[in-house]
């Protein structure tokens, strides 16, 4: 059995590693907000929600689209809600069927899967640690392709590419007739909480992807959206199955968009904890990626494969995300989520134990 392709799969991971996990585990492989979902979700009126179970949902997702468009300051014609960002990634793949695609990696693995499923030719531009996209990369990134995919803030490194570089990239791509898909699934975890939505007004080949899964911890609900030029939105919409965004998701999405205080508090707590973890893990001689979000990569000097650490953590009830299926990382790193202080302390305790064990062996 091979290792799981995504985080949040502790039982699959344990089976693949041929081991049993202890009864209590902390799943640091899942990178959704540990403080979510917001309590208002559980307070929603069940009778109201049940009416959304028996009725067909609004096929145009009108209310949620209007609310998201307002928040992002774009016309509703420039926004499409999907059954998670994952659905939109596959729809984008289908629009660009058989085209030449490049992915700036390491990055979320579904861009490649979606493009390969639609017979695209897929190439990579692999960034090296500390995974900074620079202006000098732009020409190479957009050369001889139809579509470029990238993820910022990046999953798995947590690195947010600088706005100035992104604007230069989008501008160069527009001039060259290259579409650019920027996945901003984690943009709302950054302290600046600033996406690139303003650019949608000026660039017809830019596609921004957003997920509501991560901040609100609603992986089971399936809600994401994209921002793009009207023509492109229409082309993608034509391919989307009717009623793709179910009625419960539409109603819950509207409720969640009222949760500004929850978002602000989550970002503050997670940023504080991330920086605390960075300091503590560096003291223990681990290297940490320059993350701006709710997860980070950890590595050890002179170690090319972190499987022994992953196994040790799992035995102690800490599930980490392996990086074997991230181009450019190849198992040399583990991705760890930022959780609440108690869980982070449990992780630190086990990491310190590992360090002590290493220094004795
Ligand atoms: C970078 C990135 N984009 C998109 C997705 C998919 O999100 P959703 O749950 O909205 O389909 C994920 C999920 O892990 C992700 O990490």
> How many structural domains can be distinguished in the coordinates?
2
Beta content: 5-15%
Q: In angstroms, what separates the terminal alpha carbons? A: 31 Å
Radius of gyration of CA atoms, rounded to a whole number: 21 Å
The CATH architecture name of the largest domain reads 3-Layer(aba) Sandwich
Q: Record the strand order, biggest sheet.
A: 2-8-7-6-5-3-4
How many helices does DSSP assign?
14
CATH class value of the largest domain: Alpha Beta
Overall, the morphology is globular
* E-strand count: 12
Low-pLDDT regions: none
The hetero compounds bound to this protein are: pyridoxal-5'-phosphate
Order of helices and strands: HEHHHEHEHEHEHEEHEHHHEEHEEH
Q: Give the fraction of residues assigned to helices.
A: 40-55%
Structural class: alpha/beta
Oligomer: single chain
Largest sheet: 7 strands, mixed
CATH fold-level label of the largest domain: Aspartate Aminotransferase, domain 2
Average pLDDT number: 95
The CATH homologous superfamily of the largest domain is called: Type I PLP-dependent aspartate aminotransferase-like (Major domain)
Characterization of this structure:
There is one protein chain. The chain folds into two domains: 10-30 and 261-360, Aspartate Aminotransferase, domain 1, CATH 3.90.1150.10; 54-256, 3-Layer(aba) Sandwich (Aspartate Aminotransferase, domain 2). The chain has a seven-stranded mixed β-sheet, sandwiched between helices. A three-stranded antiparallel β-sheet has the order 9-10-12, with helices on one face. With 361 residues, the protein is of the alpha/beta class. The mean pLDDT is 95. Helix 5 crosses helix 6 (110-117), helix 5 packs across helix 10 and helix 12 runs parallel beside helix 14. It is globular, with a radius of gyration of 21 Å. The protein is 41% helix and 15% strand. Bound molecules: pyridoxal-5'-phosphate.
């Amino acid at each position: 059995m091979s290792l799981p392709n995504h985080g949040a799969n502790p039982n699959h991971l344990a089976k693949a590693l041929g081991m049993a996990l202890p009864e209590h585990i902390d799943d640091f492989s899942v990178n959704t907000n540990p403080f979510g979902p917001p309590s208002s979700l559980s307070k929603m009126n069940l009778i109201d929600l049940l009416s959304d179970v028996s009725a067909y949902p609004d096929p145009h997702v009108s209310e949620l689209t209007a609310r998201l468009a307002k928040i992002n300051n774009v016309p509703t014609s420039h926004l499409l809600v999907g059954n998670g960002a994952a659905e939109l990634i596959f729809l984008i793949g289908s629009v660009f069927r058989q085209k030449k695609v490049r992915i700036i990696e390491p990055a979320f693995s579904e861009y490649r899967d979606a493009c390969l499923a639609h017979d695209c030719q897929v190439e990579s531009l692999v960034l090296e640690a500390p995974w900074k996209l620079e202006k000098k990369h732009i020409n190479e990134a957009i050369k001889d392709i139809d579509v470029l995919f990238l993820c910022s803030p990046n999953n798995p490194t947590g690195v947010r590419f600088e706005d100035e570089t992104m604007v230069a990239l989008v501008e160069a791509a527009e001039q060259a007739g290259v579409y650019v898909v920027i996945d901003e699934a984690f943009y709302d975890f950054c302290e600046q909480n600033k996406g690139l939505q303003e650019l949608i007004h000026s660039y017809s080949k830019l596609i921004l992807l957003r997920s509501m899964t991560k901040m609100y911890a609603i992986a089971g609900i399936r809600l994401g959206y994209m921002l793009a030029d009207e023509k492109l939105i229409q082309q993608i919409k034509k391919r989307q199955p009717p009623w793709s965004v179910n009625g419960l998701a539409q109603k819950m999405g509207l409720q969640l968009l009222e949760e500004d205080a929850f978002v602000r508090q989550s970002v503050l707590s997670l940023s504080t904890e991330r920086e605390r973890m960075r300091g503590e893990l560096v003291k223990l001689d681990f290297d940490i990626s320059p993350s701006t979000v709710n997860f980070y990569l950890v590595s050890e000097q002179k170690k090319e494969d972190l499987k022994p650490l992953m196994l040790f953590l799992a035995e102690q009830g800490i599930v980490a995300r392996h990086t074997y299926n991230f181009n450019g990382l190849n198992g040399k790193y583990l991705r760890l989520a930022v959780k609440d202080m108690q869980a982070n302390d449990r992780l630190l305790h086990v990491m310190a134990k590992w360090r002590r064990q290493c220094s004795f062996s």
